[in-house]
Amino acid sequence: MPFLPLVLYNFLPYLNLRERYFGILLASLTSIISFGMLGFSATYAVFSFGVATALCMLLSAYFALLYATVNFKK
């Protein structure tokens, strides 16, 4: 489950909002890059898997950031 770190950063009570954003962005960026590199494959199945997974990770990161913003308690 590559999106698990994105969800876990939202439930750490000792992190402020900036630290949550940084953790979510860093975790999602590494996953998007690694799955996006599969998009350079000449094999269509590997190419489509990499591109589809990278796009899903991008959406997961967006919704994790949105959830972190809405659910943040000062």
Could you outline the blueprint of secondary structure elements for this entry?
Blueprint: H1 4-8, H2 17-36, H3 44-70
Helix pairs in contact: 2-3
The coarse overall form would be: elongated
> Structural class of the helix and strand makeup?
mainly alpha
Total domain count: 1
Number of beta-strand segments = 0
The radius of gyration computed from the alpha-carbon positions, rounded to a whole number of angstroms, is 14 Å
Describe the oligomeric state of these chains in a short phrase: single chain
Termini Cα gap: 30 Å
Overall pLDDT score = 83
Keywords: Membrane, Transmembrane, Transmembrane helix
Transmembrane segments: 21-40, 46-68
Characterization of this structure:
The protein is mainly α and 74 residues long. The protein has one domain. Helix content is 70%, strand content 0%. Helix 2 packs antiparallel against helix 3. The chain is elongated.
Fill in the keyword field for this structure.
single chain; 74 residues; mainly alpha; 0% strand; transmembrane
Summarize the structure.
With about 70 residues, the protein is mostly helical. It has one domain (about 15-70). It contains three helices and no strands.
